[in-house]
Amino acid sequence: MTATDPGLTALAQSWCALSLLHGRIEAHIERALQAKHDLSVREYSLLDVLSRQHNGPGGHLQMKQVADAVVLSQSATTRLVTRLEDRALLSRYICDTDRRGIYTDVTEAGLALLTEARPTNDGALRAALDEAAKNPELAPLVRTVEELRIPSPA
């Protein structure tokens, strides 16, 4: 395959369309969450991921797992966690069985804010998808997103 190969060009164009859709959705959700809840998309995502933890073996996420879940570097995740910890939306603690492990939990205030922000996130997502569906290049991607059936985490 060469750089001018039609298959590669089509693949690159598809990737650009997917990237454009993602960027538009994220920007739309970001504006809504910031305006109504003083939360960024990443902060919301972190609270959401951490809220799905449970007590017991394997129920808490270490910082590396958190970084993987929110698709950030470990250093960026640490800064994000620190910001939310400073706002009393989450807390960190040392693992009982491995003193090197640091876990993170959402506080009651964090859960309350997440519950309040979830309809804003979902509404902004719906609005962004509806707007993107008007664009002929993005419409097939919107349909694909709408048809995906990802199992909910337990």
Task: Describe the fold and architecture.
The chain has about 150 residues and is mainly alpha-helical. It has 6 helices and 2 strands. It has helices at about 5-35, 40-50, 65-70, 75-85, 110-130, 140-145; strands spanning about 90-95, 100-105. A two-stranded antiparallel sheet has the order 1-2. A hairpin with a 7-residue loop joins strand 1 (about 90-95) and strand 2. Helix 1 packs across helix 5 and helix 3 packs across helix 4 (about 75-85).
Layout: helices, strands, pairs:
Layout: H1 6-37, H2 41-51, H3 63-70, H4 74-86, E1 90-94, E2 102-106, H5 108-132, H6 139-147
Antiparallel strand pairs: 1-2
Helix pairs in contact: 1-5, 2-5, 3-4
